[in-house]
């Protein structure tokens, strides 16, 4: 292999580091109207009246929109496949506002200062309603967050809006109660995970204009351009063919841009005024009015025999989707489907619960997508089980975890929103990850070391799995086009949001064609130009889009051979293509020359091929995470000294970029474990609405990350690759909690693990 | 009001409003490498050099930059130090989404001039204001250490 398994630089890297104008706001036309959004100061209210006359009269204001001016089509902002697994519970602007930060009105003005002035001139009369701010009390509360008559959802979502339930899910295999009864040792514990903010460095941004054919063009910092097009068509009552969505470079997403946010507002302004319009969210708006991670509560019961063989896992969950049911069902199902199959030898397993509405900022897609939440609960509970059994936690995993060529019935039962697919885990080096990680952190010694003194060290571990796209649902496609100089345009619907997917997809095409990666010119993603792709989510790009690129490139190779056969007037099986030359016996022609001939001289035609791929399976990447902490017993402060991550992501296409994905994921997971928490006051107002109040790990907080990718080969992946985008985030919460227990014997069961919680637990222990 | 800014060695007279921040003026003048990330002087993506020292342009009133020299990444493109830093970042794959890169690079550029033989801890402290959400910082630090090693 020449081009894959190679740590080449990102193809877009130089443009990014040299600060070229490549992000949405850098590209917006200078004459764009500036769009600002008036946001609700109340957690729950009905708008009785909005007086827009003063704002409209302000010099420079071109357009003011309220709920009276927008199409009344319920839609979901969640950028998912179709039919959508999230309820249609949102208007572009609504008479009801359901959280502090919800959209009330839209102003477009010739400049930012005028737009902000105009917002202050809007006079809104609210009927304040009783909000639901405690997700544990939401179900059946007398305040109904979605009382509307036109609420809709697909049957499989099991929404019950009259009881504040956005989605419900239940599954059960085997005799759960009976197996718990028969178990020698039972762990029964409750865990909580918090709301986490994405904090991608580039805030949400979009601009729009009308093209020369009178079509609406949206340029957006999005993970899902094709879903944006479809969702906008529904929300705005426009045919899909009247909308074009272009994604320029994106300054990070992590799931926060797997949705539409500012797009409908700029679109409406452009449609009403005929003028270009742009929106650039303030950081406060990003915190208040986009997405968080779904906070969840889990009641975990695990039963095992005295030798450590786990018989049964029972998980009862409750998830808070906030004001809208975006990704409600699917994140909840992933909490089960991307954790429970790791323990595939159980006799019985059950998972279920409700996803409820509250008057908090909506929860949505976020790297890890339910799996990190349940991983914290289940992997903490596993650690507790190990201690109760007096067994090494590593050994407990080794006895019970999934191995290569095995399966789990959960794969078939639980998909995302719907039934999953039956599959055998063809590549699984989890055993090697566990073993190598233990060595790297010196588990044998450190786990058993006597714990004493003011500052105490400890180690903890957790294992994790994720998926590679959503089987039988996520489709990616790619088109290759031969240029007259022998280079190729690679048009991909796949959406590079900073991950390097343009680079690795180019490497895949280059490998198949046996040409240098520099001969491939990737372009992503533009709904008018590139073929369809669901977008950058669910750890799908390398596997799903990568396979599409592989297929397109294989077809291109055939086309080149066919064109060579016609040129030499021989049959195709007499022709060879080695990446540089096309040969038939003694005769040969360079690719460049053949391309020139095809463009200008003989038998002229364009060589162009398209490949599509939809996964028949979703091969899970696996990893083992090991944390070493030092706990200050006088202050409760926890220092994370070292984090070892050993990952099976198949064969990495670009080992550097794969490793950075894991490192970035770990830091975000460490943030969730130790620092980050979205907090509200008692009225539902967000307290953590800037980067001073919402703490993400800084450079000094991340000490040592030790990442290793093990040798692995996934036969269904492109050149053996699986996904790597999400897996890195999953283990830190549990591994760090487990390490703290190993150090000082206190168990923190609600995230984040702050010094206050550790200190309180230490005091209670004494 | 009118001020004089020397941006990337080009002196220009700029019409500003007294309440405008340097960040907004620079972006208005098409220096798009200067990014807007947080509005509170916390994230570092708006970093520029003022008279060679790193400042957060979102927190500097444009009026107070009157008469000063401003350097953005656009002004360093042919500088060998810029090439070395950016190449080190690209080799580690530490550019990722790239939104924090120009600000980080300017700060590394300034750190090189200011600190002699910094330890990794010194570097981290110097660069602590440059937040990054993609890389976990570790690949960036690998790159920056390499850049310092080669230069030393």
What does this protein structure show overall?
- The complex is a heterodimer of chains A (766) and B (152).
- Chain A is α+β, with helices and mostly antiparallel strands and 766 residues long.
- Chain A folds into 3 domains: 13-129 and 201-252 and 257-289, Aldehyde oxidase/xanthine dehydrogenase, a/b hammerhead (Aldehyde Oxidoreductase, domain 3, Alpha-Beta Complex); 296-470 and 617-765, Aldehyde oxidase/xanthine dehydrogenase, molybdopterin binding domain (Aldehyde Oxidoreductase, domain 4, 2-Layer Sandwich), CATH 3.30.365.10; 475-614, 2-Layer Sandwich (Aldehyde Oxidoreductase, domain 4).
- Helix content of chain A is 28%, strand content 23%.
- A 7-stranded mixed beta sheet of chain A has the order 3-5-1-12-9-10-11, sandwiched between helices. A 5-stranded mixed beta sheet of chain A has the order 7-15-14-13-8, with helices on both faces. Chain A has a 4-stranded mixed beta sheet with strand order 16-24-25-26.
- In chain A, a hairpin with a 5-residue loop joins strand 17 (475-482) and strand 18 (488-492).
- In chain A, helix 10 packs parallel to helix 19 (732-744), helix 15 (501-513) packs parallel to helix 16 and helix 18 packs across helix 19.
- Chain A is globular.
- The N and C termini of chain A lie far apart (60 Å).
- In chain A, 61% of the residues are buried.
- The mean pLDDT of chain A is 97.
- With 152 residues, chain B is of the alpha+beta class.
- Chain B folds into 2 domains: 2-75, Ubiquitin-like (UB roll) (Roll), CATH 3.10.20; 76-151, [2Fe-2S]-binding domain (DNA polymerase, domain 1).
- Chain B is 36% helix and 15% strand.
- Chain B is built from 5 helices and 5 strands.
- Chain B has a 5-stranded mixed beta sheet with strand order 2-1-5-3-4, covered by helices on one side.
- In chain B, strand 3 (47-50) and strand 4 form a beta hairpin.
- In chain B, helix 2 packs across helix 3 and helix 2 crosses helix 5 (138-151).
- The longest helix of chain B has 14 residues, at 101-114.
- Chain B starts with a strand and ends with a helix.
- Chains A and B meet through helix 1 and helix 18 of A and helix 2, helix 3 and helix 5 of B.
């Amino acid at each position: 292999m020449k081009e894959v398994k190679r740590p080449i630089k990102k193809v877009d890297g130089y443009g990014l580091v040299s600060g070229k104008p490549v992000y949405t706001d850098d590209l917006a036309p200078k004459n764009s109207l500036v769009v600002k959004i008036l946001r609700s100061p109340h957690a729950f209210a009905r708008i009785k009246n909005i007086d827009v006359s003063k704002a409209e009269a302000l010099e420079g204001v071109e357009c003011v929109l309220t709920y009276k001016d927008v199409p009344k089509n319920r839609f979901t902002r969640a950028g998912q496949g179709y039919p959508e697994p999230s309820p249609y519970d949102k208007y572009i602007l609504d008479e009801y506002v359901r959280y502090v930060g919800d959209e009330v009105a839209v102003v477009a003005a010739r400049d930012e200062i005028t737009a902000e002035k105009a917002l202050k001139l809007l006079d809104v009369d609210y009927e304040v309603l009783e909000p639901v701010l405690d997700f544990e009390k939401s179900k059946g509360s007398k305040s109904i967050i979605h009382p509307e008559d036109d609420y809709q959802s697909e049957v499989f979502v099991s929404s019950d809006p009259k009881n504040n339930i956005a989605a419900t899910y239940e599954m059960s295999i085997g005799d759960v109660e009976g197996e718990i009864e028969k178990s020698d040792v039972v762990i029964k514990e409750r865990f909580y995970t918090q709301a986490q903010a994405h904090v991608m460095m580039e805030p949400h941004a979009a601009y729009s204009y009308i093209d020369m054919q009178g079509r609406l063009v949206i340029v957006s910092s999005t993970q899902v351009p094709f879903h944006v097009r479809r969702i906008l068509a529904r929300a705005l009552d426009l045919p899909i063919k009247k909308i074009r969505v272009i994604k320029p470079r994106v300054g990070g997403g992590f799931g926060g841009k797997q949705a539409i946010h500012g797009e409908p507002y700029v679109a409406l302004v452009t449609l009403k005024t005929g003028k270009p319009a742009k929106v650039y969210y303030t950081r406060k708006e990003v915190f208040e009015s986009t997405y968080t991670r779904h906070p969840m509560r889990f009641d975990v019961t695990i039963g095992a025999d005295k030798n450590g063989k786990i018989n049964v896992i029972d998980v009862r969950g409750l998830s808070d989707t906030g004001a809208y049911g975006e990704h409600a069902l699917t994140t909840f199902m992933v909490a089960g489907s991307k954790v429970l199959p790791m323990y595939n030898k159980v006799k019985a397993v059950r998972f279920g619960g409700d996803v409820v509405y509250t008057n908090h900022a909506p929860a949505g897609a976020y790297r890890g997508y339910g799996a990190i939440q349940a991983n914290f609960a289940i992997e903490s509970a596993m650690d507790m089980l190990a201690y109760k059994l007096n067994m090494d936690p590593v050994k407990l995993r080794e006895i019970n975890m999934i191995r290569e060529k095995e399966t789990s019935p959960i794969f078939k039962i639980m998909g995302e929103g719907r039934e999953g697919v039956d599959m055998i885990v063809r590549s699984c080096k989890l055993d090697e990850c566990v073993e190598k990680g233990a060595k790297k952190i010196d588990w044998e010694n450190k786990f058993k070391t006597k714990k004493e003194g003011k500052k105490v060290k400890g180690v903890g571990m957790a294992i994790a799995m994720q998926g590679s796209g959503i089987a039988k649902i996520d489709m990616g496609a790619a088109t290759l086009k031969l240029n007259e100089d022998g280079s190729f345009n690679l048009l991909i619907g796949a959406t590079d949001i900073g991950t390097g997917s343009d680079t690795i997809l180019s490497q895949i095409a280059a490998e198949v064609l046996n040409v240098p990666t520099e001969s491939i010119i990737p372009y992503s993603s533009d709904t008018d130009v590139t073929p369809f792709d669901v977008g950058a989510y669910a750890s799908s790009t390398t596997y799903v889009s990568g396979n599409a690129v592989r297929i397109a490139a294989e077809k291109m190779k055939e086309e080149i051979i066919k064109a060579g056969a016609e040129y030499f007037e021989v049959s195709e099986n007499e022709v060879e293509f080695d990446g540089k030359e096309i040969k038939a016996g003694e005769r040969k022609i360079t690719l460049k020359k053949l391309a020139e001939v095809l463009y200008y001289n003989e038998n002229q035609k364009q060589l162009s091929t398209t490949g599509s791929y939809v996964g028949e399976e979703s091969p899970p990447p696996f990893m083992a995470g090991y944390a070493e902490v030092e706990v200050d017993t006088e202050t409760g402060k926890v220092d994370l000294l070292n984090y070892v991550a050993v990952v099976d992501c198949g064969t990495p296409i670009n080992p550097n970029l794969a490793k950075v994905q894991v490192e970035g994921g770990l830091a975000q997971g460490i943030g969730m474990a130790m620092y980050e928490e979205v907090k509200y006051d008692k009225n539902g107002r967000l307290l953590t609405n800037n980067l001073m109040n919402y703490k993400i790990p800084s450079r000094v907080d991340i000490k040592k990350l030790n990442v290793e990718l093990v040798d692995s080969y996934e036969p269904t992946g492109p050149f053996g690759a699986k996904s790597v985008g999400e897996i890195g985030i999953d283990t830190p919460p549990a591994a760090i909690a487990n390490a703290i227990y190993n150090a000082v014997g206190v168990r923190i069961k609600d995230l984040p693990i702050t010094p206050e919680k550790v200190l309180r637990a230490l005091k209670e222990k004494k | 009001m009118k001020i004089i800014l020397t941006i990337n060695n080009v002196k220009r007279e700029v019409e500003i409003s007294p309440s405008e921040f340097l960040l907004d003026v620079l972006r208005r003048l098409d220096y798009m490498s200067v990014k807007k990330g947080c509005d509170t002087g916390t994230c570092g993506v708006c970093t520029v050099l003022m008279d060679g020292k790193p400042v957060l342009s979102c927190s500097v009133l444009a009026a107070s930059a009157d008469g000063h020299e401003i350097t953005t990444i656009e002004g360093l493109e042919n500088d060998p130090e810029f090439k070395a830093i950016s190449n080190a970042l690209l080799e580690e794959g530490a550019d990722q989404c790239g939104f924090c890169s120009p600000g980080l690079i300017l700060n590394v550029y300034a750190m090189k001039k200011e600190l002699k033989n910094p330890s990794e801890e010194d570097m981290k402290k110097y660069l602590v204001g440059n937040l990054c959400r993609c890389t976990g910082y570790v690949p960036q630090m690998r790159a920056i250490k390499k850049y310092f090693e080669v230069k030393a």
